[in-house]
Specification:
The structure is a single chain. By secondary structure, the protein is of the alpha/beta class. The protein has 8 helices and 10 strands. The protein has one domain (about 10-255): TIM Barrel (Alpha-Beta Barrel), CATH 3.20.20. Helix content is about 40%, strand content about 15%. The strands form 2 sheets. A 7-stranded parallel beta barrel has the order 1-2-3-4-5-6-9. A two-stranded antiparallel sheet has the order 7-8. The two termini are about 30 Å apart. This is UPF0271 protein.
Length: about 260
């Protein structure tokens, strides 16, 4: 069995994506598995009650919390690319992140990082103006906030150049292209539903630093955190299977921010 080159990794999930009494996914169960939680803050989902409830559950479990801002697009769940200028991106990222920070204070916890959601993350991965807007908003709110960015992207580079703490994220349940980008949703190979295949792919990356791709050669990617989407119907089973597989190879699961 090949030796692992990476022995410690974070597991994160996108949570708090409901409204009022309605909950998408099983956030409580996910918070018993992951070590970091990206909490929706009003752009694609959530409201003050949902934020408070999710943040309270996270605090009770000692989970590191991040803000998960998105395009203001609840109808499209933040997965549509909207033609919003960079200055407006800066303002809505600040507004959403600030809202979560305020609710976190009420819940007795704190927000430690920012991870853009959905289409906003995809645009920031290739558009420097949008990436810079996100970084400006994060720096203006709190210079101690980190950014969790898709590995190998423009946002990762821009945040690093600006002196912001930046960490790289990989996806357990999303396919990659040979260029290192996520396969767009709706295309073959975009989503990985097989728990064993997802875990095996991650173990290959942990052993080699190379991520298997759809239709091409593996690509080299850095990573501090692995994401399992919380809105998938099988998210909890997926996350648990991955954690068990990693633990079976003596991988330490710990927050990327300690």
């Amino acid at each position: 069995m090949p030796a692992l080159t990476i022995r410690t990794i974070d597991l994160n999930s996108d949570l708090g994506e409901g409204y009022g009494p309605w909950v998408m996914g099983d956030d409580k169960a996910m918070l018993d598995i992951v070590t970091s939680a990206n909490v929706a803050c009003g752009g694609h989902a959530s409201d003050p009650e949902t934020m408070f409830r999710t943040l309270t559950w996270a605090r009770e479990r000692g989970i590191t919390v991040g803000a998960h801002p998105s395009y203001p697009d609840k109808e499209g769940f933040g997965r549509r690319r909207l033609p919003i200028p960079a200055p407006e991106v800066e303002r809505f990222v600040a507004a959403q992140t600030g809202a979560l920070i305020a609710i976190a204070a009420l819940a007795g916890t704190k927000v430690s990082y920012v991870k853009p959601h959905g289409a906003l993350a995809n645009v920031a991965s290739e558009d420097s103006a949008v990436a810079q807007a996100i970084v400006r908003a994060v720096r203006a709110i709190d210079g101690k906030l980190a950014i969790l960015a898709i590995s190998g992207t423009v946002l990762e580079q821009v945040a690093g150049d600006a002196g912001v703490g930046v960490f790289s994220e990989l996806y357990a349940d999303r396919g990659y292209t040979p260029a290192g980008n996520l396969v767009p949703r709706g295309q073959p190979g975009a989503m990985i539903d097989d728990y064993g295949a997802a875990a095996a792919r991650l173990l290959t990356w942990l052993e080699t630093g190379m991520m298997p791709t759809v239709g091409g050669d593996p690509v080299k990617l850095a990573g501090h955190s692995i994401c399992v989407h919380g809105d998938d119907p099988h998210a909890v089973v997926m996350a648990r299977a991955i954690r068990v597989a990693l633990a079976g190879r003596s991988v330490t699961i710990a927050p990327f921010l300690r």
